[in-house]
Write a structure and sequence with these properties.
Layout (H helix, E strand, L loop, with lengths): L1 E6 L7 H10 L12 H7 L5 E10 L2 E12 L4 E7 L8 H8 L25 E2 L24 E7 L7 H4 L4 E7 L1 E2 L5 E2 L4 H9 L2 H10 L19 E4 L2 H5 L1 E5 L5 E4 L10 H10 L7 H10 E5 L3 H14 L6 E4 L14 H18 L3 E4 L20 H19 L7 H11 L11
Parallel strand pairs: 1-5, 6-7, 6-10, 10-14, 14-15
Antiparallel strand pairs: 1-2, 2-3, 3-4, 8-9, 11-12, 11-13
């Protein structure tokens, strides 16, 4: 494996990719400090800040720009350390950390890899960015297509879908993720509810900014998405937040915002609920805020099947017609340990609406998880989170469906799949040791 570091002015041509990686990555975002590219550009003028990018290639192909770091050389503290999940389990994160000299790092939130201050993977070699070698596959090895020849797939939904990525990368697919993330108030924000997508497309920017500032569970990036960029060939979309979240309508303007799920925030006792949010380290969800929210907003409830269908039709019209949309539906089983009362019944209703829509809409398909998510033993803490082995099954079925749409089976790397499968079996706390 070859790794290429670029620093200083050499990263200027990549500011858009740097901004995207920092703001959209979660699984391997160790600091979770969201930034604008203008901030990065201004920060490059600061001699105390060492900005760099990470590129990786091996005999299986070119992974492209997959990492960003920013080291404060005065405090020896990493202010940014983030990687694309396409290099998960390859040792790139640990190698980069060692390359930087194991500086101080305050990890924010959950990450898929645990770094240590001793190891430097010996299967990775640094190459000169001005003389980076081209990578050729050795004979007799089953490899995927070069990155530029792969279909670019936008994977949009909950961050659990990140478990699909290593398995999808065993096929000739270049996966781009857009999942929920922790906003500046350390509150998870789901970007995929169809009501939020429409708000980001249709509401005036001033209204978006006003609500993002007023509601701590939104945040400044909550109306942003890659959906409207013509930079992907296939859209894989999980609408399960429409199945789950409640809509709250602002009484003065009538604007509706999704949040939470299976709970009426306008009916909770503010002090007790604020204490729960404090335990989760949410910022801004204070007793005073909740009282104000209850005065200014009213519960609409979960989106109706008719509204859901209307929003899906709207989405299909927004996405380029030549781009297929593969929808992931929901499981329909009762989970005794879940606090989400009525979730299975809700999934049945929305699954019917989704199936009817996809049957009538052009270039739309449904991946049916009900074929293999059948019992409570197949899920973890709720109806939307599956055990690890099922994400491999889902990835394989998705790749098959994409191949059928394309009219040609996707090339497959058995070695990449084996690595992903082995890594998925390792407990999370030990994954940093599995390279």
């Amino acid at each position: 494996m070859r790794i290429e570091f670029r620093e200083g002015e050499a990263i200027l041509p990549d500011l858009d990719r740097i901004e995207e990686l920092i703001n959209r990555s979660n699984q391997l975002n160790f600091t979770k400090r969201r930034v604008r590219k203008e901030e990065v550009q201004a920060s490059l003028e600061d001699p105390a800040r060492r900005w760099g990018t990470v590129r990786v290639h091996d005999r299986f192909g070119d992974y492209g720009l997959v990492g960003v770091y920013c080291l404060n050389t005065e405090t020896e503290q990493l202010e940014q350390l983030v990687f694309s999940c396409r290099i998960l389990h390859l040792g790139v994160e640990q190698f980069t950390y060692a390359y930087l000299g194991f500086p101080a790092l305050e990890v924010q939130g959950e990450v898929a890899t645990h770094l240590n201050t001793t190891e430097s993977p010996d299967w990775i070699t640094i190459v000169d960015p001005t003389n980076a070698p081209k990578v050729a596959a050795s004979s007799g090895v089953d490899v995927t297509a070069p990155a530029e020849a792969r279909l670019r797939v936008l994977l949009k939904g909950g961050c659990d879908l990140g478990q699909l990525t290593p398995f999808l990368q065993a096929f000739e697919l270049d996966v781009v993720e857009e999942f929920n993330y922790n906003n500046e108030n350390q509150i998870p924000v789901h970007l995929e509810h169809t009501a939020l997508l429409r708000a980001g497309r249709e509401w005036p920017a001033a209204e978006q900014q006003r609500l993002a500032a007023a509601l701590p569970f939104l945040g400044r990036e909550s109306f942003e998405t890659q959906l409207w960029q013509a930079s992907y060939d296939v859209l894989v979309y999980s609408p399960l937040m429409d199945y789950t979240q409640e809509l709250y309508r602002e009484k003065v303007t009538g604007r509706a915002i999704p949040f939470g799920g299976y709970q009426n925030l306008t009916a909770v006792e503010p002090a007790a609920q604020a204490a729960k949010y404090t335990q989760r380290r949410f910022q801004g969800m204070s007793e005073d805020f909740l009282r104000q929210f209850q005065q200014e907003f009213e519960l609409v409830g979960q989106i109706t099947p008719a509204q859901f269908t209307e929003n899906l039709q709207w989405l299909r019209a927004q996405v380029p017609a030549q781009v297929p949309i593969f929808f992931l539906n929901g499981a329909e089983i009762d989970v005794p340990s879940s606090s989400e009362t009525g979730a299975a019944e809700r999934h049945i209703v929305l699954n019917r609406a989704l199936a009817a829509f996809a049957a009538a809409a052009p270039n739309c398909y449904v991946l049916d998880v009900r074929d293999f998510i059948r019992t409570p033993a197949d899920v973890t803490n709720n109806l939307r989170h599956y055990h690890r082995q099922h994400y491999r099954t889902l990835a394989q079925r998705l790749a098959t469906a994409i191949g059928e749409w394309r009219g040609q089976h996707l090339a497959h790397s058995s070695w990449t799949d084996l690595k992903a499968r082995a890594a998925s079996l390792v407990p999370g706390k030990l994954r940093g040791l599995f390279k």
